[in-house]
Design a protein that fits this description.
The chain is built from 4 helices and 14 strands. It is an alpha+beta fold.
Amino acid sequence: MQNNDQALTQNTSASAKELNATPMVLTDAAGEQVPAPYDPALLAFIHEGTEIRNPYVSPDGRTLVNPVSAYGFVEYHTGGGCMALMRPHTEGRVIFLTQDGIYIADPQDWRECLIALCDAEGNDIAYCDLADVPTCNEAGHQNARENPFCPEELKLESPEALKDRYRVWAQENLANDDLEFDEQASVSLCEGGAFVQARIWIPAEKLPTPPDDADEGV
């Protein structure tokens, strides 16, 4: 009897592990919905260099946020009086966030939400309960503090920290009497570097003299 109990426990544990390993539901080529491993290429998106798996959580994983103001989702009528939050994905596909398939959830209710991907015609591609989305870093939250637009040694820095480093470098190495960099200067991260907003001093005497007929026709 003890051996049977142990076997049942092992089978139950193995089933739980298998379920946890395949939390996503994928629509296969035959149109059947089958369990599948979570795939961030389908259900996550990149926002300012950070992989976002949970749109109700800030990029650093510390606070709850509104997906509309934080990540550009918009309210969308899915039909039959049902509502969802929608955001464009790639290749014409869109990501949807719903609560019970009907409502738009408040941030504190994110564990009751489902995240789904549909093609341009509205056909289901994949979905997953947001509470079952696996974490993707050592901090244990669902949004990766990783920036793909930088060398490997900098990828663990948050986008904002990396922007600050570019601002500081510009101030220390490029600033002079004619070129200034504000502490709040805009920084656009790009592959291999960044564009840092600068202010250039132009003396008035550098401007050409206006033509004599500048006031004609006024």
